[in-house]
Amino acid sequence: MYSFNYQKTKSVADAAAALGKNADAKLLAGGQSLIAAMKLRLSQPAQIIDLGEVAELKGIKMDGGSVTIGAMTRHAEVAASADVKKAIPALAALAGGIGDRMVRNMGTIGGSVAHNDPAADYPAAVLALGATVITNKRKIAADDFFKGMFETALQAGEIITAVSFPAPKRAAYMKFKNPASRYAMVGVFVAETAGGPRVAVTGAGPGVFRVPEMEKALAGKFAPESVANIAVKSSGLNSDIHASAEYRAHLITVMAKRAVAAALT
């Protein structure tokens, strides 16, 4: 590690003020990504602004047909929430499958969404459920939030305060996980929403993305066979020591079929 300034904040306003004073500052949520990046010198912020004691960023609220989750809510809390299990069981199941117990008890939904790791689970849920990312400055629709690898629509000084998920008619998430890290080599979240079916893929490409062909097929009939023969092109997908782009393309169809079947049970 290296030397840096560390600051705890008690409110979103204080955190935003501190962030605005130093262009080389980073927000610390759960720290599961940032600390690892700092150890490897991939990130070297001059100042760390800790959000751990900002009470207004924590908690889960039911609001009509939506579930709003505070940015500093831990994965384990989402997985254990009775409200989330009742309204969006697929979201609770997704949270329960992130990393290991240490990661789930430290990592936060806001940190995961802001970091936008191309193999993270939460971005698939945010995009497939048509969620809204709420910041200290505005509300951002899921389709407008994710921009690419580790890139989002967040502007300088903008802090995620919560994510609001509209409850779908039904949904499920299936992933082919790396056996060591449990990151998604390919994860597919399928949801039948008020606006129609939505299919979001994580782990396969440089960022989370939707599959319009599958959504169109599911709009005709929400059944596993509707997506079974839809092949996603391998061009542009990730290829590494774990899986080729061609294999990941194949897995998208397999995981989508399984997710639809799970959503129907």
Which key phrases capture this entry?
single chain; 265 residues; alpha+beta; Uridine Diphospho-n-acetylenolpyruvylglucosamine Reductase, domain 3; Enolase-like, domain 1; 2 domains; five-stranded antiparallel β-sheet; 14 strands
Please describe what this structure looks like:
The protein is α+β, with helices and mostly antiparallel strands. It has helices at about 10-20, 35-40, 75-80, 80-85, 90-95, 100-105, 110-115, 120-130, 140-145, 210-220, 245-265, and strands at about 5-10, 25-30, 45-50, 60-65, 65-70, 130-135, 140, 145-150, 150, 160-165, 170-175, 185-195, 195-200, 210. It has 2 domains: about 5-165, Uridine Diphospho-n-acetylenolpyruvylglucosamine Reductase, domain 3 (2-Layer Sandwich); about 170-265, 2-Layer Sandwich (Enolase-like, domain 1), CATH 3.30.390.50. The strands form 4 sheets. The protein has a 5-stranded antiparallel β-sheet. It has a 4-stranded antiparallel β-sheet with strand order 11-12-13-14, with helices on both faces. The termini are far apart.
